[in-house]
């Protein structure tokens, strides 16, 4: 392959990172540079390598393919094969840049070293391998302050990548008038098996008390309508503990841009299958959500939220993140130490929602423990009946957001590094 050929590789993991970091940056990079696959005869390509992650669903590759942004997409299960034998996945140019955008930062270090490429990291909280980076782009000055002084010149503060989400949330497909509640039950089975039956019952209880309320489920890119049906059915043991269920689901058609779910109690819930659903979400008054990257998305859109983690089901421990989550997934340990893990997490846990983690204080309510749909329904109604409280949370979320333009600044840093190394004409 010609020495002039260049590969840019994004390294990422779960659905949240793909939606909030990878997709916006890929779109902007295609605008700035002529890249394959968008420009067929280009000598430069944009690629995606997915890495092992306990929070991934396995469906990330399906979402990424739909965007038509990447020349090559390597599945997470093939990551080690890629390291051992890169040629097995096609030819790779002699020049390239690996960019960390989610997962364990060490994976991108390994890949850049294996291919002999430049390396760049987007550091949301900390840059863990600073000496292995040609450049670091950081969310805040606090990250720069933690770096060794001789590394700090390599680091540029660009702000919060998710802050640009509001720019894409143009209301071009308005929802009908009324009070709207977004329901985000999760993006992986560990959360969906609890979130779907729980949130369906919450919707039924709210609808009974406030008939003028309307509901929306924006489907995560890694799930689908069939999973909604499955986890609300008797095939999901947890659904038997709730009274609500699905009577019918109608998929969206050309005339109606959203699907329609009707519960057994006749509550109507619109289903938005197109992702990201920022336009629909930005029109909602409040969101009920599980933990995860969705709390960052909602925060960036300034949407008031209540974060819900019902821990009365022992299998809910599969939804914990990190090492604890891995332990709790082991079949032998799931039953014997699940309750112990729950107790420890509830007693010693830090903040779970992104706005609270970043602010180091409670900005959005987190309801964790033995909670019922009736309790969450009542609290949601209280929020909806208190416009001042809603606007106060919106203002707090607005203050937390980074300055806009992080995606464009990131692209500038990528191009600047490639030019500095004489890899761009």
Automatic annotation (TrEMBL):
GO biological process: lipid A biosynthetic process
GO CC list: membrane
Keyword match Protein transport: no
GO MF term set: lipid-A-disaccharide synthase activity; phospholipid binding
Keywords: Glycosyltransferase, Transferase
InterPro entries cross-referenced by the UniProt entry: Glyco_trans_19 (IPR003835)
EC number(s) reported in the record: 2.4.1.182
UniProt entry tagged with the keyword rRNA-binding: no
Domain of life according to the entry: Bacteria
Protein name: Lipid-A-disaccharide synthase
Species for this entry: Prochlorococcus marinus str. PAC1
């Amino acid at each position: 392959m010609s020495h002039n050929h260049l590969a840019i590789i994004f390294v990422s993991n779960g659905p949240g990172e793909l939606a909030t970091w990878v997709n916006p940056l890929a779109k902007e990079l295609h605008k700035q540079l002529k890249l394959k696959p968008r420009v067929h005869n280009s000598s430069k390509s944009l690629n995606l390598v997915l890495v092992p992650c306990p929070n991934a669903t396995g469906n990330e590759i399906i979402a990424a393919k739909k965007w038509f942004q990447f020349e090559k997409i390597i599945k997470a299960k093939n990551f080690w094969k890629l390291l051992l034998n890169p040629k097995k996945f096609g030819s790779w140019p002699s020049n390239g840049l690996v960019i960390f955008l989610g997962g364990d930062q060490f994976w991108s270090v390994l890949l850049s070293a294996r291919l002999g490429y430049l390396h760049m990291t987007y550091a949301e909280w900390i840059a863990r391998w600073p000496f292995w980076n040609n450049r670091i782009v950081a969310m805040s000055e606090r990250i720069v302050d933690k770096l060794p002084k001789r590394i700090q010149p390599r680091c540029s503060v660009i702000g919060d990548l998710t802050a640009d989400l509001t720019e894409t949330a143009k209301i071009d497909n308005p929802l009908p008038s009324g009070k709207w509640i977004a329901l985000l039950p999760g993006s992986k089975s560990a959360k969906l098996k609890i979130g779907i039956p729980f949130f369906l019952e919450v919707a039924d209880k709210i609808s009974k008390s406030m008939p003028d309320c309307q509901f929306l489920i924006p489907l995560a890119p890694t799930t689908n309508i069939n999973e909604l049906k499955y986890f609300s059915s008797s095939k999901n043991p947890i659904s038997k503990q709730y009274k609500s269920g699905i009577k019918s689901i109608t998929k969206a058609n050309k005339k109606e841009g959203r699907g329609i779910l009707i519960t057994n109690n006749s509550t109507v819930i619109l289903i938005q299958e197109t992702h990201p659903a920022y336009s629909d979400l930005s029109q909602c008054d409040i969101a009920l959500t599980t933990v995860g990257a969705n709390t960052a998305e909602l925060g960036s859109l300034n949407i008031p939220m209540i974060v819900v983690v019902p821990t009365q089901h022992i299998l809910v421990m599969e939804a914990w993140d990190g090492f604890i989550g891995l332990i709790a997934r082991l079949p032998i340990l799931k039953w014997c130490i699940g309750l112990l893990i729950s107790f420890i997490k509830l007693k010693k846990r830090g903040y779970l929602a992104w706005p609270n983690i970043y602010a180091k204080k409670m900005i959005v309510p987190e309801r964790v423990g033995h909670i019922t749909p009736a309790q969450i329904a009542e609290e949601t109604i209280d929020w909806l009946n208190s416009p001042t409280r809603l606007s106060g949370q919106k203002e707090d979320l607005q203050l937390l957001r980074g300055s806009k333009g992080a995606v464009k600044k990131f692209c500038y840093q990528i191009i600047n590094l490639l030019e500095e190394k004489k890899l761009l004409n």
